[in-house]
Design brief:
The active site is at 313 (proton acceptor). The chain is an alpha/beta fold. The chain is built from 13 helices and 24 strands. Bound molecules: shikimate-3-phosphate and phosphoenolpyruvate (PEP).
Length: 430
């Protein structure tokens, strides 16, 4: 149950970055030596990655919820698992593992929950098959469960039709064990954590003048410690809440501000929110800062193009902010939302309408007309999608009565403790 709040004040932190946590475990496993991970996100998705890597023969000591030691086995040290690998709800686990396993000399079957079994895997299995991977699965390898009989891979120069870090990463990771150098180019830049972290592990990743990201074959990953910054995608819910609650003044410490991820800061600022970066620094090849956000009058904006991959996971909560901005907000070029944990164009629109918001579904996005006073009493369906659960909780903070969120547990996928954090703000503000 979410109660309305007056404003958010004070200081907080958010859990570790999900994308970086997954990669730290996977790359640590493939490295020579021990990788110590601090600031790890103990969310369900990253724990699925830990479980899969353990089944592949990697020893991972969990010293605390956020601190792990990964005992690397090297690029050729993984073992055939005794059972099916289960990626749970995690697209990142599924697609990056496919890239890693395509060139391993054994058989695996990989599956996930009902959402994962609906999400498109052909975008990864097709380029991997071009490299020589032997993959089968439902609908001819387009849907999980998928099985891979690892094989010798040849190099690929791949022009991805989608701006997807998961596709890019899968090809680059397969490229590590291919014969010859592989390269990937994407239509718009997606998050580059794989490139940055491979470099930190000693792999000579480069970007060519014509935009291909390349990895040399036969590279050795050398273990290195990874301190995971806070996840800007999780911070986004707090930034959005503070932006729409006038009088808010909130500092979120230690948040990753990799430029491929900061689209939400650009969009909120363009809407009129005041966001300052403090203590900017670099940690493990990733830029980090403290974010200070203050609530202000907001106006509608139009977004699309290359901004979209830079805020793709933040669009549901951006739509909530748009209900509190004067005028029309239009989000275009965001078809990718349809293939996330839920169809986020449809689910965001359906749930926001329960608050009385004025939302139109577009083929490639959403049109929201504000400013609307949101109604209390909504009973929110989350479709087992963590981002929908949290975005609608933010809407609940500005509604004029209590909001019920069904299937609250889904928030544990990326932001364990979100409910307690919101409740702690409520106490400060009433
Ligand atoms: O590589 C990653 O860590 C991710 C990439 C994005 O997905 P796509 O690659 O499908 O765009 C994003 O939505 C997801 O939350 C995490
Ligand atoms: C889309 C997401 O993650 P994944 O693709 O890893 O399931 C997300 O966290 O919003």
């Amino acid at each position: 149950m979410i109660q309305p709040a007056r404003h958010l004040t004070g200081e907080t932190t958010v859990p570790g970055d999900k994308s970086i946590s997954h990669r730290a475990v996977m790359f640590g496993a493939l490295a020579e030596g021990q990788t110590r991970i601090t600031g790890f996100l103990p969310g369900a998705d990253c724990l699925s990655t830990v479980q899969c890597m353990r089944q592949l023969g990697v020893t991972i000591d969990q010293l605390s919820p956020t601190e792990l030691i990964v005992h690397g086995v090297g690029l050729h040290g993984l073992k055939e698992p005794e059972d099916v690998l289960d990626a749970g709800n995690s697209g990142t686990t599924t697609r990056l593992l496919l890239g890693i396993l395509a060139g391993q000399p054994f058989h695996i079957t990989l599956t996930g929950d009902a959402s994962i079994r609906r999400r498109p895997m052909g975008r990864v299995t097709e380029p991997l098959r071009e490299m020589g991977a032997v993959i089968d699965g439902r609908e001819n390898g387009r849907l999980a469960p998928l099985s891979i009989r690892g094989s010798r891979l040849s190099a690929l120069r791949y022009d991805s039709p989608v701006a997807s870090a998961q596709v890019k990463s899968a090809v680059l990771l397969a490229g590590l064990s291919a014969e010859g150098g592989s390269a990937v180019r994407e239509p718009k830049p997606s998050r580059d954590h794989t490139e940055r972290m491979l470099l930190a592990f000693g792999v000579d990743v480069r970007t060519t003048d014509d935009g291909y990201i390349t990895v040399p074959p036969g590279s050795t990953l050398r273990a290195t410690d990874v301190d995971v910054p806070g996840d800007i995608s999780s911070a986004a819910f707090l930034l959005a809440a503070a932006a729409i609650l006038p009088g808010s003044d909130l500092i979120i410490r230690n948040v990753g501000i990799n430029p491929t991820r900061t689209g939400i800061l650009d969009a909120l600022r363009e809407m009129g929110a005041e966001i300052d970066l403090q203590n900017e620094r670099t940690s493990g090849g990733e830029p980090v800062a403290d974010l200070r956000v203050r609530g202000r009058e907001l106006r509608g904006i139009t977004i699309g193009g290359s901004l979209i991959p830079r805020l793709i996971d933040e669009i549901p909560v951006l739509a909530v902010v748009a209900t509190q901005a004067a005028g029309v907000t239009e989000i275009r070029d965001a078809e990718e939302l349809k293939v996330k944990e839920s169809n986020r164009i449809a689910t965001t629109a359906a749930e926001l309408r329960k608050f009385g918001a004025v939302v139109e579904e577009l083929l490639d996005g959403l049109r929201i007309t504000g400013r609307t006073r949101l109604r209390g009493g909504a009973e929110i369906e989350t479709y087992h999608d963590h981002r929908i659960a949290m975005a609608m909780s933010v809407a609940g903070l500005v509604a004029d009565g209590a909001t019920t969120i069904c299937d609250w547990e889904s928030v544990d996928v990326s932001f364990p403790g979100f409910g307690d954090l919101l409740a702690s703000f409520d106490k400060q503000t009433t």
